[in-house]
Amino acid sequence: MAALPPAEWIKNWEKGGKNEFVQLCRTLSENKSHDNMGFRDIQQALYELAYHVVRGNLKHDQASNVLGDVIEFREDMPSILADVFCILDIETSCLEEKSKRDHFTQLVLACLYLVSDTVLKERLDPETLESLGLIKQSQQFNQKSVKIKTKLFYKQQKFNLLREENEGYAKLIAELGQDLSGNITSDLILENIKSLIGCFNLDPNRVLDIILEVYECRPEYDDFFVPLIESYMYMCEPQTLCHILGFKFKFYQDPSGETPSSLYRVAAVLLQHNLIDLEDLYVHLLPGDNAIIEEHKREIVEAKQIVRKLTMVVLSSEKTEEKEKEKEKEEEKTEKPPDNQKLGLLEALLKIGDWQHAQSIMDQMPPFYATSHKPIAVALCQLVHVTIEPLYRRVGVPKGAKGSPISSLPNKRAPKQADSFEDLRKEVFNMLCYLGPHLSHDPILFAKVVRLGKAFMKEFQSDGSKQEDKEKMEILFSCLLSITDQVLLPSLSLMDCNACMSEELWGMFKTFPYQYRYRLYGQWKNETYNSHPLLVKVKAQTIDRAKYIMKRLTKENVKPSGRQIGKLSHSNPTILFDYILSQIQKYDNLITPVVDSLKYLTSLNYDVLAYCIIEALANPEKERMKHDDTTISSWLQSLASFCGAVFRKYPIELAGLLQYVANQLKAGKSFDLLILKEVVQKMAGIEITEEMTMEQLEAMTGGEQLKAEGGYFGQIRNTKKSSQRLKDALLDHDLALPLCLLMAQQRNGVIFQEGGEKHLKLVGKLYDQCHDTLVQFGGFLASNLSTEDYIKRVPSIDVLCNEFHTPHDAAFFLSRPMYAHHISSKYDELKKAEKGNKQQHKVHKYITSCELVMAPVHDAVISLHLPKVWDDISPQFYATFWSLTMYDLAVPHSSYDREVNKLKVQMKAIDDNQEMPPNKKKKEKERCTALQDKLLEEEKKQLEHVQRVLQRLKLEKDNWLLAKSTKNETITKFLQLCIFPRCIFSAIDAVYCAHFVELVHQQKTPNFSTLLCYDRVFSDIIYTVASCTENEASRYGRFLCCMLETVTRWHSDRVIYEKECGNYPGFLTILRATGFDGGNKADQLDYENFRHVVHKWHYKLTKASVHCLETGEYTHIRNILIVLTKILPWYPKVLNLGQALERRVHKICQEEKEKRPDLYALAMGYSGQLKSRKPFMIPENEFHHKDPPARNAVAATVQNGPGGAGMPTSLTINTVRLEEGTTEETDKLKEKSQGVVKVINKAVNATPKVTTSNGNSASNSKIIKEKDDKEKSGKEKDKEKKDKTPAATPEMKALGKDGKDKPKEERANKDDKAREIKEKTPKSDKEKEKVKKEEKASKEEKSKTVVTIIESKSTAEKEREKEPSRERDVAKEMKSKENVKGGEKMPVAGSLKSPVPRSETSESEREQKRRKVDTHSSPSHSSTVKDNLNELKDSSAKHYINHTTPTLSKSKEREVDKKDLDKSRERSREREKKDEKDRKDRKRDHSNSDREVPQDSTKRRKEENGTTGSSKHSKSESPSDSPRLNEKEKEKNKSKSSGKEKGDSIKAEKMEKSSSGSKKESRHDKEKTEKKEKRDSTGGKEEKKHHKSSDKHR
């Protein structure tokens, strides 16, 4: 507020106030930066000064003086002063104080010399002017001013038309219409026009109008008329020209009027030369902007209605009405719409190249509204043509093309033509953006723009540019992408099936990375079609047409339909493919016809198809599982199948799809591996299926040619190109290894990350899918990548496992081809280096190359496992196992022969075919001959290779198994780290594992126990089976099948056995100290004993199978059925085992029919196949030698030697009985199998220490058991047995009841026992004492423990191993007794050793040696499943009594029964006395040797005779009981059975004592004879007693 003079200045005016004020005014005047501010400040200052005068604070002459000084500071100062006076005039005239008014008048009078009169007259009130004396009378002054105003503003000055002379206009037209080509200029004509106006009184506006009319008619004379009008306009007001044009346009605005194009052109030229303003002219044009917007909205609504109609289902009755309505509407529409003058002007502007004005008109309208009118679109296209011409000629014209050059516009104000890509960005891209989808009107321009894009991309991708240029190029590239998105693709949609444009566009697109392309397709498909009414309609029509085609598409009309699809796809591929894919997802039978019909597509369309497939796969709204959550959705399966077929048949880029799968895997989703699996299968011809036949599998172990001919289901033809494409895609985008690693890692991810809430069945399926795809994909890489590519990409084994966390099996699978490549290339190098051709040299070179390649691998594998592992197996063995394949181990000669024979048959058929033309015959024959030669060559090559490998293994084998702990531990490691992981990896690996085991055996590998290995594999398959997925179960089945094949071959013929196993270290039954595998024939397992062992394995398999079938668990049942189906050729071989299985499977069929149809189908399939195998099954006694029923009891014990072959007998009898029973029997078997699990659990809970991996446990449990045993008296034990196993007693009774059904012999034995009831009480005390003595003696013998062969993971067998001495004793005792009887001998199957008796000294030596070996393993073996085993032994004895026999008529049975009963009682009394005597003698004679009986044997016996065991055994007998007895018989037998039970138990105890000393006795002939006598009287009874006593021990 510096402009206000302070009051002090006024008070001290003369002293300094005046100067201060002048200074202030000067400063304010000089400050010109803010003009308005300065003006106002000065006004304020002067006003304040004047106001002080009015108030009387300052004299008027003082003020006028200072104003005189100030007036010079600014030119407009007088005017400012006048304004101040004007304000004060109004203020003071309102005041009542007259003095102030007087002061004001005096001030103005004093200042009259400063402000002119005229200014004051303008500004001041008439009354004031009068008082100042400037006018005479104020009233007159007012009247005068009113008159002037009226004259100025309200009077119209018209030319008098009568005064105008027509001649003037005639002369004017003559002037303008003359020939202008000479020297006539616009200035000259203008002078003439002026003269004519003056001379003939012409109206200047009308003259201008006529000039414009003539200009309209002579548009070519722009250069003349524009300057003329420009000069003429200096005489008129600026608005005149615009008004005249406006009136012209108005004239044509009638509904029927049509504005001539010439008028538009004139207006456009005048606009371009800035003679008129667009804003001024725009208001004169119709229609209004609001009307245009309304029309645009209406078009959108109409388009949507059309879409709705097309998608609506219209019934036939409604159709006719609809059509009539539509016709009426169309007739209304045909009335011509009023002229759109704005668009007309716009078109004219574009034609003359006035882009600025055209752009501003288009900006006033909705987007693309203007260009949706064809004339405008065409005009704009023409303008673009002209603008890009020089650049296109330079870089865009294809080689050899001439093209028609376009001349530039004559107009200098037109846009500058583009010479570089930068110029394109400035103008052309902008023009194209306004064109949008309507570039479709000019395909030639479309092609030019695309070619320029192509040329730009070429330059963009070359690296020679500077940093600044690169940035510019980046901007240009993004502009090009925008143009493609907004202009090129939408325009393609509106073009009518122009395949050439599509191909042209692909020329540019293929230079973009697929990420950009797919982004563009996504925009095109999902955004673009909604942006414009025309495109909305096109989309609807495309879908409608696609529906029409797809409804009619069949295999028969693929060609015509394919052509229609092709036509439709050229313009709107995204919409079409989206619909086709939706149909494929619903109906998978469309896949083949659709794939075949896609052959008329352009390259761009194939690329779009790839994008559409990925989008369909990634659709988040689709569920990947069926509603039951156990299977992959069918839409995904259909899409995957379509993918495989379409990518194989057509050259579509795969990168996007492969990257999608990789990304899904990264995200932990493995569903989409289905796609990769299909693509690899179809493109590379590598299929992974579990349904391969053995012939196919065999062919898969040969060379590539054999694989292709005989290994796959479909004939693999013409996959060379497609597999090359797949390989290139993987290598170019570095996806080969990442996909492998992701799959390998995802296998576990499926279970632990994905599998959380998913159904177990689905988790298994996904795991299988992931694994199979890995195997298939790895196989593809191995066979298609060159050695260098493969080795460059796959890291070493330790890096794979430790850094990438690849599971070991997968890591070796990926590395295996690398080793093979490496070895073969090294081998070739060495061969070239030295030309030696001898076989030995070759083998030596091969071995050298193996060592070179594998040495680093041996070092690398050490890090994969704990150091302890390498104590048993060497890294070399581990690496050798994992690096070899079936190709290296054996030549599939039969497969080669089979394929060669097929080709010979084909050639014969070709010869016999009369219809085939000769040249074709010749070609076919040549093909067959070539193939045949290839196969034979391949066979020869493989044969040489296999021989070399076997030589190498022969040299290596001695260092394979170190067995620093025990052979048992070695086998454990071998199975755990090698066999089990690999046998479920793939079908070929399953076969390989079985072959490898056989090979290790054949090579006579030190420290490898073949028996142990096979025993482990067959012994307890429940856990392995239960933990497999479906496909793994199938492979595991194949593995078992191959193992069984080998075993069956050995079992079938003594000669083969002796040749292949007889003298091999793998069949030693005594494990000596490491390094001594002495060739003592007596240590070898003989043929008969081997047959017993095989029977045991068959029994084991049956037991496991029944257990799995009984569980009710989906996985157990499914897997065991799969395994059983696979091993059908070799198992079951024994009739009764087969029958037991058959019944159990039959039960599954009944139970699962409604519940789980997939299990039902599996069970039915197996059941059918099993029945067909029945004729090939054999009775047990043919499978391994057995004695007739009377002596079966002996056989049972004999078989229960260390080899543990006793188990089978128990179940086999059981199963035979089962067959004759009712359904109740199967239930009991079920109870038994479940009991096994219970026993395991009990035992596990009982053992104080945890069982180790080797199945060993601390011996504490045994000691505890011993103590318990000692404390219990006979009766207490009986009670305890009843408490723990309630089922035992009734079943024993049942056993008693059963007596009548047996043959006389057996019945006699039973009846004898009935008498023993009487003797029960007096003997129990004696027995107790004897038991204690036995224990004492056995403890002393502890040091001579024997380690026997079959040490298995199954703890049941470990139990058996622990009782060798006892078993052998019993066996020998039984044998000696048996020798007298009927002259029939039974081969001893007790221990796996030779049955020849040895001297005591040699026996003890052996025991010491065995003890040495035993020290390596844990102090004792676990008793976890011992009861399980014992129960079987017990039952075996009982069952022999129950053995099946023909039933007699009831009356006879009763008679016989009574007689037998009497006889047997007498016999038993006599025998009892003899027994007592014998035992005492024996005890006296051999008290020394008794002390040496191993303590373990007593321990084991006690453990073995656990309550659970006995209870279960009684259960297992039950199936053979009651059904055949009637009520009377039951009553009769009740008393007998109860008595018999007691008697049996007493006798059994005695028998137990005798058995403890029997080891020595078997060596003494004296005792032998005694026993023989006894044996005559008792038959098979002793064994039974022995088992009863074992129950008592509890």
Main traits of this protein?
1594 residues, mainly alpha, disordered C terminus
Describe this structure in words.
Helix 8 packs across helix 9 (138-153), helix 15 packs across helix 19 and helix 27 packs antiparallel against helix 28. The model is unreliable at 1073-1079, 1188-1329, 1336-1453, 1486-1575 and 1577-1594 (pLDDT under 50). This protein has 77 helices and no strands. 71% of the residues lie in helices and 0% in strands. It starts with 6 loop residues before the first helix and ends with a helix. With 1594 residues, it is mainly α. It is elongated and about 180 Å long.
C-alpha-based Rg, rounded = 56 Å
Output the structural class.
Answer: mainly alpha
Question: Which strand-content bin applies to the residues?
Answer: under 5%
Shape: elongated
The main sheet comes to: none
Percent helix = over 70%
Oligomer: single chain
Low-confidence stretches: 1073-1079, 1188-1329, 1336-1453, 1486-1575, 1577-1594
Q: Work out the number of β strands.
A: 0
Summarize the structure.
The chain has 77 helices and no strands. With 1594 residues, it is an all-alpha fold.
Topology of helices and strands:
Blueprint: H1 7-11, H2 13-30, H3 35-55, H4 60-70, H5 77-94, H6 98-110, H7 117-123, H8 126-132, H9 138-153, H10 166-177, H11 186-200, H12 204-217, H13 222-232, H14 239-251, H15 261-272, H16 278-282, H17 289-311, H18 316-334, H19 341-352, H20 355-363, H21 374-396, H22 421-435, H23 443-461, H24 467-494, H25 499-509, H26 514-526, H27 533-552, H28 558-571, H29 573-586, H30 591-597, H31 603-617, H32 634-649, H33 655-666, H34 673-684, H35 694-700, H36 704-711, H37 720-732, H38 736-754, H39 760-784, H40 787-793, H41 797-802, H42 808-833, H43 839-861, H44 875-883, H45 886-889, H46 893-912, H47 918-956, H48 967-983, H49 987-1002, H50 1010-1019, H51 1022-1026, H52 1030-1052, H53 1054-1062, H54 1087-1111, H55 1114-1126, H56 1135-1155, H57 1157-1173, H58 1180-1183, H59 1192-1199, H60 1206-1220, H61 1223-1246, H62 1260-1271, H63 1274-1284, H64 1288-1297, H65 1304-1315, H66 1320-1340, H67 1355-1361, H68 1364-1380, H69 1400-1414, H70 1426-1441, H71 1450-1485, H72 1487-1492, H73 1495-1504, H74 1507-1517, H75 1527-1561, H76 1565-1578, H77 1581-1593
